[in-house]
Amino acid sequence: QAVVDFERLGEHAAAFQGHDVGFCCLGTTRAKAGADGFVRVDRDYVAQAAELARAGGCKHFVLQSSRGANAQSRFLYLRVKGEVENLVQAVGFDRCTILRPAVLLCKRQESRPMEWIAQQFLGAVARVFPTAYSVPVETVARAMVACVLQPGEGKVKVLENGAIHELGKA
Q: Which of 138, 154, 150, 158 has its CA nearest to residue 21?
């Protein structure tokens, strides 16, 4: 495990050397970091980490993005997620897997009242429609590992929420 300063990520290139696979789940919220901070963390830091990983020999990069990611979106969150997907793909990994989960079901240490309400509602909906609107973070993690263990099917693979659920069961 290496601790890096994302404001000086280039100084930590050695931490990205010699890895066959890179996993990226980096992100923040607009409420926590402001609009500029959100863009810096969710797009700029991720893109720079991908570039360092590729330069360090990484062959397969696995990126957690978001359902609805679209570089043309009017919504900042979805636009930034779409932009970073494009930037990561452009780095030129042998394989790139992008996961687009719906609402992540997890327990957080910090208080996010609206997210908690949404999770309670979606947790109940998930009992009837388990793959429609949400996904437990443990399922996403299992899917990320499983996609690396499977043979590659093309250079870029995008997994939407239903596929994440399926792969996360493996």
A: 150
